[in-house]
Amino acid sequence: MYRYDEFDHQLVNERVAQFANQVARRLSGELTEDEFKPLRLMNGVYLQLHAYMLRIAIPYGTLSSRQLRMLAHIGRTYDRGYGHFTTRQNLQFNWPALKDVPDILKDLASVEMHCIQTSGNCIRNVTSDQYAGAAKNEIEDPRIISEIIRQWSTFHPEFSFLPRKFKIAVSGTPDDRAAIRVHDIGIQIVQDGAGNIGYEVYVGGGLGRTPMIAKKIADFVPKEDLLAYLEAVMRVYNMYGRRDNMYKSRIKILVHEIGAEEMKRQVDAEFAEIRKAGTLHLPQEEVDRIQAYFRPPAFETLPDESTELNKAVLADTGFANWVKSNIAAHKIPGYAIVNISLKPIGGTPGDCTSDQMDAVADIAEKFSFDEVRVTHEQNLTLAHVRKKDLYAVYEALKAHDLATPNINLITDQIACPGLDYCSLANARSIPIAQRISERFADIARQHEIGELKINTSGCINACGHHHVGHIGILGVDKKGVEYYQVTLGGAADEKTAIGDIVGPAFTEDEIVDAVEKVVNIYLDKREAGERFIDTYRRIGLAPFKENLYATH
Amino acid sequence: MQLIKNGEFIEDSFVAVGDEDALPDGPVIVSLERWQAERETLSARNTPLGVRLKSGQEPSVIADDLDKLSVVALEFPAYRNGRAYSYARLLRERYGYKGEVRAVGNVLRDQFQFMIRCGFDALEVSDNITPEIWAECSNFFSLFYQPAADGKPTVLSLRQRLAARAQSSDTA
Amino acid sequence: MAQHTRKGAQFQSVTANRLQDGIVVYLTADGRWSESLQDAAVAEGKEAAEALLAKAEPSVADNTVVEPYLFEVSPENDRLSAASVREIIRQAGPTVRPDLGKQAELADAQC
To answer: Is the pLDDT of residue A232 over 90?
Structure first.
């Protein structure tokens, strides 16, 4: 993975010094809260329901064991011994004291981590595919261009006061595990007939109050031109994005209002000028330099079948279930991708204790070339595990309650922190996810149901990505009481879709039954081999709507 | 308010004139509307002239007039409104403007360096900014990842320099 | 800012977050800030509420707290309760972690 050179170190250290200075000036009163707020936001410090919240950037979701151990240490030393992995591959701590934040930042800088631009109206963490470097049909490791974009966007003097936040995601395979079509900019790596790498660029995707799917405005931007192209998009947005209304300030509104064609025309015009100037031309040596950090690790030559694995699967049903759902195919024979579920039955989705972080760090160091990935579905991934080691990895994970065999199954839910933690929320989301998880805990039933993604958000800001859940749940506040609105048929993959609202919202007592009814309707109507989303795409909303409210 | 130009605290020789006010002798800064309405008379004066652009008034509308203007003042109506960062870069890098690009409005110390990088060479700042504060805030970062209007070397160029030096010492 | 309070609320108190550590605090009758809702001063009626909120200003100016606001409370028997789900959670801690927050640390906070 990428390692800082002296320049990267220096920049982060200067930022740490700058923010320490700003915190000191705030605590002494030299800075008012109004002056301090944009500064603390640019360093990922939020004020939440119970305390401050610190959001730590995990660039394109990749961590070394050393970094993960430092996160565990920070959780223990400055917080309450746990962190929360988010739908943007970042980590959040819920209880840091402001006065401790400069020390936390110093600790992070010592392992090449930071909280830069994890909040505020600037370019946020570039997210990507947790299977990078391991997926079978990968065109190019998306982390290379993600790292290049990260550097270009860090402390960008022109784009630090945008109309609103800006999120970029990159996918390197035809199947999209990065939800690029619901990002402000989504980048799809492609190859032309001659084998040259280029980029499809999508703009104007997003969730929240007005969910929209991004529009493609470029079919093939050559690698050396990508930064110039992105600069053009950002400049058009910075100049023309609305600033009169916070709810109409994202680039998706601009694209919606002027149309994708006009957006493309304006971007192309600006791109032509920037390209002419030549200052953002990306030299091959820099690409090569960064690419070297993402070279494949020293894979052994192994047979694709592993007798150890096959024996263990037959001997242990728990292990067999885990292999069935949590393991994905690797491009190298004899290797596998391991998904670590942070969704234990009845647990808080995405939460991870410091002890668990240390355990994962140890396992990654021993079994997966020292590297861990965070997924936007709030789980972790070990990308390169030998098949013969899978049983040992399973046992090690199991000892720390990290072997729940439910990846992509109904209990593998996404939930935002919601009203239990977040000052923006209207309703709690975690207890709903917990009760759904408990209702469907039976593993045989989960297998019967198959792939089904339930996403819950505690407010319209949609940090739980409910719009793109197969079943989406949105918590709302009706006269001080929590209600839950259901959407169906959303998807965040390459067939991105916004879910359809089913009907009136359900009470806290009704919502789990409602979800179960939806599941039963699916089971009743499905044809052979159909997942929930396939059935929904075939039969549409009506059968669900009718039956769901039949006795409501 | 104080004016800092090229890092020095100076007296502002320009007077900001409202759209209905009589024009004093000496250098003035007028609104874009007044400039467009009274171009002839304003250009005919033999004193330095500036135009103030509000957020939403792009530099392209005065691109052909830049040779007549000593100052282009770009407004930040609120510190959050970052349009003028793009306007400044366009003035410098697209239109090659060599006159003074002045930041006016809600200009906070933690933005000084961003503004300089984007091509502002003059900033109208609040009275509590001292030379020490200016020195500190205009130089917080010594390195920059991306190119901007200030033409300062980027981390990329520093890396290339390092690599070239390493190569030449290899071959030495 | 007076959000999170119902229009026409009869009883209100003032809450804020401590600057240093972000912890939720409540304005007491003698102008201090307590971590416990049970210590909060209660204002009856609109005018008293606005006066109470004004009493929080010096603590903003001297950097003790940030973002004070009014919220509705119900004084019942000898226990003060918050009226909204949000403020109930805020005075106790996350409902999904009864081992964390005021509900675990203070004798008199409960959900």
So the answer is: yes
